[in-house]
Amino acid sequence: MTSLTTVGFDADDTLWHNERFFRGTQDRFAELLADYTAPDHLAERLLAAEKRNIGRYGYGIKGFTLSMIETAIEVTEDRVPARVIRQLIEAGQDMLAHPIELLPHAQAAVEAVADTHRVVLITKGDLLDQERKLAQSGLGDLFDGVEIVSEKTPAVYAGIFERHGEGAERAMMVGNSMRSDVVPVIEAGGWGIYVPHGLVWEIEHAEAPEQAARYREIADLGALPALLDQIEPR
Ligand SMILES: [Mg+2]
Question: What is the 18 CA–ligand 1 centroid distance (Å)?
């Protein structure tokens, strides 16, 4: 029988809303550049810039803002007005100040799991921004550890669950990204629990590991305590 020591939670779009702020800013981006290019083409170019830049800037709003500026320069062939650049910088700064809105069941689920397991917040993104969101969420005190990482790979998960428990084989990760929260944890030997959010950034798409014994999907975090009981009956 498994005995799980540690449960990791993803943050963005698992505990609180995130992707909707990116979508809203992207709509604004399309409006600002409407005189130069069609929204579909702009979105394609932006996504290409984001992919190119992850290795340089990492994940998060700062890199996204720089990718918008780079794309604006590209699609206007260097003619983008400084006024538009300023509005893009302001749009990024607005995102860095957006209020935290917890997802349904998030607080109750973390509280319930924290009673019986070590709980760790594991997230990518800008260090300052993720710290701000955790502080504003009111969930900070529930976590035994917080790990803000540049990439979520099997090796990164193995290290985290070694530090905060007894290894990945006795750990579970819960999140909305199949690519970052589920697949690499299962590869590391742990449980990967997928909680779909609806809005997914294209870069986070991956096939569900349907054949994996340690893969589960739940509709929302309200189902997490029952899933834990089912996996390790007390
Ligand atoms: Mg997420």
Answer: 8
CATH C-level class of 6-17+101-231: alpha beta
Other beta carbons less than 10 A from residue 78's beta carbon: 6
Residue with tokens 């550890």: 145
Q: How far is the CA of 79 from the centre of ligand 1 (A)?
A: 35
Q: Which residues, in sequence order, are CB contacts of 174 under 8 Å at separation 6+?
A: 7, 8, 9, 10, 14, 181, 193, 195, 221, 224
CA separation (Å) from 28 to 98, 199, 202? 15, 18, 19
What are the boundaries of each domain within the chain? Answer: 6-17+101-231, 19-96
In the CATH hierarchy, which top-level class contains the domain 19-96? mainly alpha
Q: Which pLDDT score, from 0 to 100, does residue 196 have?
A: 95
Ligand 1 mean position to 204 CA, how many Å?
Answer: 9
Q: Tell which residue, 112, 118, 116, 233, has the closest CA to residue 166.
A: 118
pLDDT averaged over the chain? 95
**Is 67's pLDDT higher than 90?**
yes
The rounded Å distance from CA 222 to ligand 1 centre is 17
